[in-house]
Design a protein that fits this description.
This protein is of the alpha+beta class. The chain has helices at 5-11, 13-20, 51-56, 115-121, 148-154, 172-178, 181-198, 202-215, 222-232, 235-238, 290-301, and strands at 28-35, 40-48, 59-63, 69-74, 85-88, 91-95, 104-112, 122-132, 136-145, 159-170, 242-244, 249-255, 266-276, 281-289. Strands 4-7-2-1-10-13-12 form a 7-stranded mixed beta sheet. Strands 8-9-14-11 form a 4-stranded antiparallel beta sheet. The protein is elongated and about 90 Å long.
Length: 303
């Protein structure tokens, strides 16, 4: 998706309109934060309200339908100012006479931006498995703000938080390497028996049951095998075997709940980071400690 300055300007128009209502008070934008996942945005700016202005402007009024709401207001000492804004006939109204003695005030707005706007200003490269060895699999992570010079003309400060890169970590070969033949045969026989049980062929069920009985003689029971698979592919267990480079952190780890073979092929790992105008690009590796994970499977199966 190409970057379109006109589209960006249209998207932030509602944000600018709200701030424009404070023009007599010389608003100074301090920070703009956009959440990549939820599309929530937060605008922090400071207004200057000396006594001379208070005598001239008794009220500050903002239409309540612009898509942004005031969630916080603080004075120069960072004391929170409560219950000064009131709702009257579709407008938010602040009586300046009731403000504390400070001249400068921090105001925080929150709203939402369209999802396509976030995709226009942030580029997330699909994770690539660039480095494989006996011990590790490493996946390259890269994301960036697009056309930073254009964004800098619009904002002095911008941060996009929780930018996420989803990595599909391959684990099927780990099971092949960790499990002995008799266990793999038992897993396959268990899968075939479950599949036959969902069908209508009595002969197929009998064949699958016979194969299963033979296979499990030299292997753990079906319940034990299923428990093993679910344990070692659970997110809380698997996250011990993946790490990410700064500035990334791991947010979610989950297995694919449907898989064609006897065990899952991939585990989804979500790595998150943040971008801003000073550091518009985030690069690093997600490392899967493959050898250690294989050993963990062997220990849990008792091999």
């Amino acid at each position: 998706m190409n970057f379109d300055p006109e589209d960006v300007l249209k998207t932030i128009d509602s944000m600018k309109k709200v701030i424009d209502y404070f023009k007599p008070f010389k608003p100074e934008v301090k920070a703009i934060t956009i959440n990549y996942r939820t599309y929530r945005s937060r605008v922090e700016f400071v207004v200057f309200v000396p006594d001379s202005i208070r005598r001239k402007f008794f009220d500050i009024e903002i239409p309540a339908y612009q898509g942004y709401r005031i969630v916080e207001m603080r004075d120069e000492s960072f004391n929170r100012i409560e219950a000064l804004w009131t709702y009257k006939k579709g407008r938010l109204v602040l009586d300046t006479k009731n403000l504390p003695s400070s001249e400068r005030f921090l105001i925080v707005l929150e709203g939402k931006v369209p999802s396509n706007f976030v995709k226009r200003i942030v580029r997330v490269q699909p994770a690539i498995n660039r480095d494989q060895s006996e011990e590790y699999d490493r996946y390259w992570l890269s994301c960036m703000l697009k056309d930073v010079t254009i964004l800098e003309r619009i904002w002095n400060s911008l941060e996009v938080e929780e930018v996420s890169v989803n990595v599909k970590v391959g684990i099927e070969k780990c099971f092949s390497a960790a499990l002995p033949k008799e266990v793999k045969k038992a897993l396959e026989a268990t899968r075939e028996l479950l599949a036959a049980g969902r069908g209508k062929s009595r002969d197929e069920i009998i064949r699958a049951w016979s194969k299963y009985r033979q296979a499990v003689k030299k292997a753990p029971s079906a319940d034990q095998l299923i428990d093993l698979i679910y344990k070692v592919t659970d997110g809380s267990f698997f996250r011990n075997y993946v790490t990410v480079d700064d500035p990334y952190s791991i947010r979610n780890v989950r297995r694919d709940e449907s898989f064609p073979g006897p065990f899952p092929e991939k585990i989804s790992v979500e790595a998150v980071t943040f971008l801003n105008l000073r550091t518009p690009e985030a690069k690093g590796y997600l490392t899967f400690k493959k050898k250690s994970y294989i050993e963990a499977i062997r220990q849990n199966i008792g091999v």
